[in-house]
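Typical record was shown:
=====
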Amino acid sequence: MSDCLLTILMPCRNEEAALGQSIDDARSFLTRCGISGEILVVDNGSSDRSAAVAAEKGVRIVTELRPGYGYAIRKGLECAEGSVIIIGDCDTTYDFSCLEKIYGPLAAGECDFVVGDRFAGGIEKGAMSLSHRIGVRALSALGRLITGTDVRDFHCGLRGITREAAGKLDFQTGGMEFASEMIVLAVKNGLRIRQVPVPLRRCEKKRRSKLRTIPDGFRHLRFLLHR
């Protein structure tokens, strides 16, 4: 376990079409940079061939039966073997082949937690709806007001944390609001947070989005107001 420097953690539910490319990109990053690491797919009750695709690609798979983005990531954090853990959606909207700016500062001990900023990194046309952009900006502004942090994108699905720091965070949520909870707990526990620009690409694969703009937005809002 001590030889594993990096876990690339992919929460997954019905991403059969996109998962293979995400795994290939993550593997190319590990190989190109010569990093001893693992790719960990957390299958969150997929009804398609996602688990089979992961098995065919030869990566480690764990299962989280409780449905929810947060539950899947929490399971992955518990099972990760890397001293650094990078979390990313496996729908090809994030480029797993270019993770240096997330991994580097964490591996060097410069910070404990790195959060991606899609607004600074650039959002490809069609990658995020207008309602989602407005909602993310508004909820992130509320999060900054409540916590005193300067994090600009509370909901970015690409982020990294050291395993030691993750062990300090007492997660309670299981849905999409987990993204906000992670930042709130990081601030509360005095983690050193860094933001890096990450581009958001439009998913080219045929898939059904897991995001429910209004219900998920209210989950974030309710969490922030009752934290």
Notes: The chain has one domain: 6-225. The chain has a mean pLDDT of 92. DSSP finds nine helices and seven strands in the chain. The longest strand covers residues 6-12.
